Amino acid sequence: MGKIVFLDVDGTLIDYEAKCPDSAKQAVELARANGNKVYICTGCSKAEIAQRDLPELDGMIGANGGYVEDAGEVVMHQSLTTDEVRHIVDWCNGRHLGFYLEANSGMYINEWFVKQAPATMKRYALGKGADDAAAEAAADSFIGGMTRTDDLYRDDVNKVSFILSTYQDHLDSKEEFPTLEANTWGGKGELALFGDLGPTGITKKHAIAVLLEHLGASQADTISFGDAKIDLSMFEPCAYNVAMGNGGPEIKAAADYITDDVNEDGLYNAFRHLGLI
Q1: Rounded CA separation 99/95 (Å)
Q2: CATH code of residue 234
Q3: Are 192 and 103 part of one and the same domain?
Q4: Could you tell me which residues are beta bridge partners of residue 4?
Q5: In this structure, what CATH number is given to the domain that contains residue 125?
Q6: pLDDT digit string (tens) for 1-30?
Q7: Which positions of the chain have pLDDT values less than 70?
Q8: Separation in Å, CA 176 to CA 121, 188, 238, 258, 271
Q9: 231: DSSP letter
Q10: Of 151, 167, 198, which residue constitutes the final position of a domain?
Q11: Fewest C-beta atoms under 10 Å: which of 120, 157, 160, 260?
Q12: Crossing angle for the helix pair 132-144 and 111-127, to the nearest 10 degrees
C-alpha cells in the first residue's frame, strides 16, 4: 500500500466557488494510479458532497468525523439522536436562526434559512475571494441543493449548521448543548458566519484512526491537506501535513509544507513535491 492521503474539500480540493481545478482532479487520478489511496475529510455530509464535481476517490470522512466510508462500505456512522435534533431545531427556531440539517439523504432547511442564507452565503464566497457575480452564483447553487420542509425532527442527521446573528449565538450553543461538539465556520480570516453542532467525541482525528484501523494501515503513511483551523484535528494524527497557500495562519503554522493556492495548482504541485505523482 502507498500513502493514505486526506483532503479537506472547500479551499483545498475545490475553490470557494465550489469548482475543482482540472489540475487537482489530475493529481488525485495520478496518485491513485500510483497505488496511493485518497480520501476527502470534510465537515460536509454525503448529500452535500454528491452535489460537487469531484474526482473519483477511495472514500470519505464526512460530518467532521461522524461518517467514514471506504470503497462504498460504511465503516462508521454516528449521528445525532432524534431528541438532540428536536432540541436544536426548537432552540434555533426560538432564536430565529436559519439552519440546515446535514444528513446523508439530503440537507433540510427551516424558513429562517430561506430568508437569511442568500446574504450569508454570498458573504462567505466574497470573503474567500469570489467576485460579486460569482459569489451570488455560488450562494444560489448551495441553497438550491437544499430541501425546505416542516418535517425537521429527523433521526438521520449527522450535524446541524446554523447562521450566526452574532458570535454570541455560538457561545450560547455551547452552554445550551454541553454534551455536543460545537464549532464555527465562515469567511475571510475564518470569520464565524455559521455555528454547527454534532455528536460528542466526533472529530476528524477520531475518524482517521477508525479508517486506518479498518485499512490495516500505518499512521506513518498518512498525509493530510487543509486550509482552515478546523483542519487541525486532521493534522494531529497524520505523519505529514500540508497547508494550502490560501489557508489561514493557524493551519500554516502547523504545517510541514505550504503549497500554492487552490486555484494556482496547489494540490498538484504538492502531490508532485511529495512524490505522489
Answers
A1: 11
A2: 3.40.50.1000
A3: yes
A4: 37, 222
A5: 3.30.1240.10
A6: 799 999 999 899 998 778 899 999 999 999
A7: 187-190
A8: 25, 27, 33, 38, 43
A9: G
A10: 198
A11: 260
A12: 140
Distances (CA, A) of 32 to 14, 29, 74, 277: 18, 5, 20, 9
Q: Residue 141 has what pLDDT?
A: 84
Q: Among 233, 229, 235, 223, which residue's Cα sits nearest to residue 247?
A: 229
Looking at the structure, tell me whether residues 141 and 118 fall in a common domain: yes
Coil/strand/helix, residue 15: coil
Whether 50 and 102 map to the same domain: the answer is: no
**For the chain, what's the residue count?**
277
C-alpha cell of 63?
460530518
pTM of the entire predicted model: 0.85
Half-sphere exposure of 167 (CA within 13 A, CB side): 5
- Do both 101 and 72 map to the same domain? no
Give just the sign of the alpha carbon dihedral 235, 240, 246, 248: positive
Residues 100 and 69 grouped into a single domain: no
pLDDT of residue 135: 84
Statement to judge: residues 104 and 73 lie in one domain: no
What strand order describes the sheet that includes 257-258?
73-77, 67-70, 59-62, 37-41, 4-7, 222-226, 240-243, 257-258
Domain enclosing residue 16, as ranges? 4-78+202-273
- The pLDDT score that the predictor gives to residue 124 is 83
DSSP 168: H
Q: Per the structure, how many domains does the chain have?
A: 2
- pLDDT at position 189 is 54
| Together in a domain, 104 and 147 | yes
